[in-house]
Amino acid sequence: MLTEKTRNHREIWKNKKILREVYHQWYKKIVASFSKCNGVVLEIGAGCGGFKEFFTAAYASDIQHCSWIDLCHDALALPFRSNTLSNIVIIDVLHHLPHPLLFFSEAIRALCPGGRVLIVEPYPSPLSRFVYKQFHPEPFIFDENLFDKKEYSKQDVWKANQATAFILLYRDKKKFLEYFSRSIKMMKQERMSSIAYPLSGGFEHPPIIPEPLFPCAFALEKLCKPLHVFAAFRCYCVLEKL
Fold first, then answer.
1. What residues of the chain score a pLDDT lower than 70?
2. Which numeric CATH code is attached to 2-147+155-241?
3. Does the N terminus or the C terminus of the chain have fewer Cβ atoms within 10 A?
4. What is the pLDDT of residue 16?
């Protein structure tokens, strides 16, 4: 099922210009925030391979093999020696992980000192929560205890809690940073994608406005940046290994 869904997403990616433009805006933010330390750039959960197309030096990895994937592995057990990665990119992956703190522990182990984890995830603003509830199957579960050191158990990778990033990196940010207090620090937090992304329809729905109007959507989004707290559909966070 995973491979079939990924192949469908790849076809949508190839044929939906506005979606590529939205993601390219995210990719530009990510590459601009890269650590300068020496090491491998790894994308986890590469999916349809969009980031690899944008930044060809990255290793694209996923949990199942596709022809455009370089490595196949579990995000909770990275097949890299300690202190060998310069940057780890995860886009819409964190909320699918059954034990996100184990992922961060693995990321810290594998990163060079000064290496970074660059994260794009759903953000539950008042507007996005309403839209996601109406049109997106994955839930926001705000009462999940992500700090519980339960045993790692495999689960269906399409099961998800879209509130994961919000819980760890926004609401309980202080607790999260204390949990990794000697290992990691927050470098950047940004709410984003309040207009262009929802108007694109994402991977699941057709665009809401015609393609010629999308430059206006991007321009309007820049003007409305102060409103992202009320309308953002995504957040962007950068963590750096100490």
1. 1-2, 149-158
2. 3.40.50.150
3. N
4. 92
